Structures are given as structure tokens and as C-alpha cells.
Amino acid sequence: MGRHHAEKSRGDSGHSSKYYSEHKSNHDRIKSNRHKDRELKHHKRNKYESDSDSDDSTEKQRRRDLKERDEFADRLKKKDKEKTRNVAQPSGSEKRVYEEAAKRLKLEAEDRSKIIPKLRIESRQKYLKKRTEDKVAELEADIIDDEYLFQEQELTEKEYKEREHKKTLFQLAKEHEKARELEKVQRYHMPDAKKDQADEKYVEVDEREKVPHYEQQKWEEEQMSSAVFRFGARDKAEKNRERGQEYELVLDDEIEFIQALRMPGTRTDREDDDKPKLTETEEKKFSLQETRRSLPIFPFRNDLIQAIKDHQVLIIEGETGSGKTTQIPQYLYEGGFTHNSKKIGCTQPRRVAAMSVAARVAQEMGVKLGNEVGYSIRFEDCTSERTVIKYMTDGTLHREFLSEPDLQSYSVMIIDEAHERTLHTDILFGLVKDITRFRPDLKLLISSATLDAQKFSDFFDEAPIFRIPGI
């Protein structure tokens, strides 16, 4: 019985241990599954957070790049503006101009307060001097009129004394003027007790005596006059003038050589003399207009303007010297393409070409360079607010894309000398092609001097070609 009980107890303990081990394994499995689920959720959450963090960092990086790009563009434009010399407008910023104007006004007010009292004294002195001369002349005229109108026997004693008094005053005034002139003459004076003291009164010398070596020249003139033999009365000229004999006697045996050598002309009509003669400016303007009419592009002026109005992009082909560069912008200006403050731009591959062509067009239009017609190159800007035709280099137009990417201020853009195919010109082709797609009001003209204009037409979506014959 004890053995049976021991076996039973051993069997029960084995069963319980087996149940316990199974229960423990199930518990561990559940625990491991929960841990896996927790780790999976944590991994998903970390993955989502990492994705959002990466998106935020990408957005921050993009905004930082845009900010750096705008700052670089602003620095570049500011640097170019500082280095660019504006020819048509006065140099200096508006703030500096205002400060200088205020400074000048302040100095002017201070100077006025100091100078006005001195000017009043000088004005009074000049007025007195002029009044003295006027009064002396008036006194002289009064004496002459009195002697001419009234004779001595018609005067009373009082009137006679008054006339004598006037004559005495007039004589004293004349002697006073002569005494003043005598004071200016340099002469020797006997020394007196005050020789060590400086002269209190300064007397200005005569203008003739200020000349260098005046004394020597005067002595030479006196010696030469004394050595010359003279005859006749000294007052001969005055007596002849009184008698009306102002000219010398003309002898009959004199020959008029000018009349003897005079030859008759062969011209009979005088019609050209009756016509008004043109001035030098009018002749120059007339010759410029004649030169414009003689260019090969002139007969196609109306057809060219109509073609530009009908097509947004136009390829213009013409030989060198046909007048493409100088005449097309003028035709567009005369055709009304600059209304609403719009401009006509024309690019040149070289700086010298842009400057010389702008000067020529300004001369033909009769305007000052920098007003209606101007140019813009690197480090030099010769334009103003009134400029409607602007010549520039290709690089200058690249810089304008920074401040005005859509070229809103231009109604027509001409890419001249496109056949040279420089690097800047090829870059411009891509830029202006994109602009014409979202700006239908912008006219684009590609000017070329070669027969290979079909390539440009193919690049600009089969644009039409306008050909101009040569000279």
C-alpha cells in the first residue's frame, strides 16, 4: 500500500510537472508574440518618423537653396550696379544727391548772411560812382541847352549867376576827375619826414603801365618820335575834319587795277540764287535721309512691318550692309511698337558694335545718345527713362534675365548677328524661345547674314523666313 501510494504520488507529480511545462511554454510563446508585435509597431512608428524627418529635411534644404540663390542674385546685381558707369544720368545715389543739395543750401544761407552786408556797401559805392557820372552829364547837357536857348542879353542877373554857378560846378567836377587820373601816374616825389612810414593811401596805376618793361618801351617811343622828320601843322587833321575834308586828295593818274582785271562771267541764269540755301545741320540731315533711302532694306519696309505684326517669331536673312541692324529698330519705332512705355531691344556680339550702332541710329533719328536711343554694355550704361531703342551685348541681356526673367519691359527683341553662333547667342536662343511660349505679345526677330537660315527656322518651330536681297 505504501508502494502504491508512492507510485501514485510519483505519477501525480509527473503529470503536474508536465502540465506546468506546457503552460510555461504557452506563456513564453504568447509573451514572445507580444514582444514581436511591440517591436513591429515600434519599427513602423520609427519608419514613419524617419520618413517624415527626411521629408522635412528635404523641404528645409530646398528652401535654403532658394534663399541662397536669391541672395546670390541680389549680390550679383548690386555688384554690377556699383561697377556700371551710367553715362546718360548723373552719377551718385539719390540719397547722396539730396545730402549734397541740403549741404549746399545750408552753406548758401550762411554765405548769404556774411556776404550781403558787404555787397550792400559795394553796391552803394558803385551806385554813387554811376550817379556822379550821370549828374555831371546832366549838368553839362543843361548848360549847353541853356546857352543855346537863351542869350546873355535875355537873362536876368539871378539867371546869369545861376548859369555861372553851374559852369563852375561843371569845371570843378572835370578837374576832380583829371586830378584822380593824375594820381595814378608814377612820378618821383621828394622824401619827407614820413618816409619811414608806409603810405596810408593805395593808388592803382594805369592799365598801360602794368605791362612789363613799360618804362623802357615809353623811352624808345619818345626817342623814335623825336628822330622822325615831320612837317606841317600839328592840328592839320582837326582842321581838315572841321572843313569836311576827311579824305586825302585822289589823283587822276591812279589806275584801278581791280576794275581792269575784272572779267565777265559765263553764268546767265540766276534761278539757283533765288532758292533758299540749307544750313549745315539741314544738309547733314538731308544726306542721312538720302542714305537711309538708298539701303536695300528700304523698299521692303512696309512688307517687313506687316510680317512682324502677323508672326511672333520671324527669321530675317540679309547680306551685310543691307541695313538690318540700323533700320529695323527705326521701322519698328515708327510703326508704333513702343507704345505703353515698351522698348525695342537689339543684341550685338561685341561691345564696340553696340556703341557705334547706337550712336549711328541716334544721329539718324536726330536725338541725343542716351535719351530715346541708348546702349548698355558691361561696366557702362548709356540709357535713361526715355530710352525706347536699346542696343546691348549678349552678356548684358543675360544679366537682365536675373532682374526681369520674362522681359516684360520689351515689346520686340532682336537677336542680331545670329550666324556667328557664339556661346552667349546660343544660350539666348533657348531662353527667348521659352519666353515666347508664355508671352504671345513679345515679338522675336532673329537676324542672320547667311543662307543657312533654315536651321534657325527649324529650331523656332518652323518660323517664317524674310529674305532681303543685297546691294
UniProtKB/TrEMBL annotation:
Q: Where is this region: Disordered?
A: 1-97, 185-207
Start and end of every Helicase ATP-binding domain? 305-469
- SMART domains cross-referenced by the UniProt entry: DEXDc
Q: Which InterPro entries match?
A: DEAD/DEAH_box_helicase_dom, DNA/RNA_helicase_DEAH_CS, Helicase_ATP-bd, P-loop_NTPase
Going by the UniProt record, its keywords in alphabetical order are: ATP-binding, Helicase, Hydrolase, Nucleotide-binding
Keyword Hydrolase among record annotations: yes
Instruction: Tell me which GO cellular component terms the UniProt record holds.
Output: catalytic step 2 spliceosome
Residue ranges annotated as compositionally biased, kind Basic and acidic residues, are 8-40, 57-85
Q: What is this protein called?
A: Putative pre-mRNA-splicing factor ATP-dependent RNA helicase DHX16
